[in-house]
TrEMBL record:
Source species, domain of life: Bacteria
NCBIfam families linked: transpos_IS6 (NF033587)
Claim: Transport is one of the keywords in the record: no
Pfam family, one: DDE_Tnp_IS240
Source species: Variovorax humicola
Domain DDE: 75-212
Keywords: DNA recombination, DNA-binding, Transposition
InterPro entries linked: DDE_dom, IS_Transposase, RNaseH-like_sf, Transpos_IS6
Protein name, per record: IS6 family transposase
Length: 235
């Protein structure tokens, strides 16, 4: 994890300006050019590509810093995938929430098959540090096969129950909306890796809105978002 000095070294704008632009872009339905106009009204001349580079450079480090305060999700997972267009082609965003609606994990994949589903579950296991007691899926066969084959690759999955229920998965389908409502105004991505980083930032903001971080030791209760971000990044 880089220090804050390393992350913002060589930038031509103050750290507060960079964090503000990145946070607003990920949180609100703003285009890069919208942000350029908003900054111009504040006397700052920016190019939209500058903000795009800030997003790509900053999001991985922001994730690392926020994840130090992340709470583990529950052990009943609802898993589903939604669609994101990259360079005119559909890609697949695998996502999971627990029974309380808190985000478990996510992964953007170019493919929708057993291998992609397994990769998502391995990532979720690494993030949460423990396998779920149950996984609820829709009827897509590849995802079912992936879960069935996981215990042979890692014994921690052997007690996980597999369920298939359209009704129980309404929760994850509703949760997709919070992410897609921000992604859709971006009008598609041109590069897969850039899309993955940007979506990671959107997901981070979505988790922050849900209150999935234990910030008690930072004493930030009641503070405005800019102050909270500053405290988290500086901690």
């Amino acid at each position: 994890m880089q220090s804050m000095d390393e992350l913002f070294k060589g930038r031509h704008f103050e750290r507060e300006v960079i964090v503000l632009c990145v946070r607003w872009y990920l949180r609100f339905k703003l285009s890069l050019r919208d942000l350029v106009e908003m900054m111009a009204e504040r006397g700052l001349a920016l190019a939209h590509t500058t903000i795009m580079r800030w997003v790509q450079r900053s999001v991985p480090e922001f994730e690392k810093r926020w994840n130090r305060f992340a709470r583990k999700a529950g052990r009943s997972w609802r898993v589903d995938k939604t669609y994101v267009k990259v360079r005119g082609k559909w890609t697949y965003l695998y996502r999971a929430v627990d029974r309380a609606g808190e985000t478990v994990d996510f992964r953007l994949s170019a493919h929708r098959d057993v291998k992609a589903a397994k990769a998502f579950f391995r990532k979720a296991l690494e993030t949460q540090g423990r396998a779920p007691m149950s996984i609820t899926l829709d009827g897509y066969a590849a995802s079912h096969r992936a879960v069935q084959e996981l215990p042979a690759q890692n014994a921690c999955w052997k007690d996980t129950r597999l369920r298939s229920s359209k009704y129980l998965n309404n929760m994850i389908e509703q949760d997709h909306r919070g992410v897609k409502s921000r992604i859709n105004p971006m009008l598609g991505f041109k590069v897969f890796d850039c899309a993955a980083v940007t979506i990671a930032g959107v997901e981070l903001q979505h988790r922050i809105r849900k209150g999935q971080f234990n910030l008690g030791r930072l004493h930030v209760r009641g503070q405005a978002a800019p102050a909270i971000w500053n405290d988290v990044l500086s901690a």
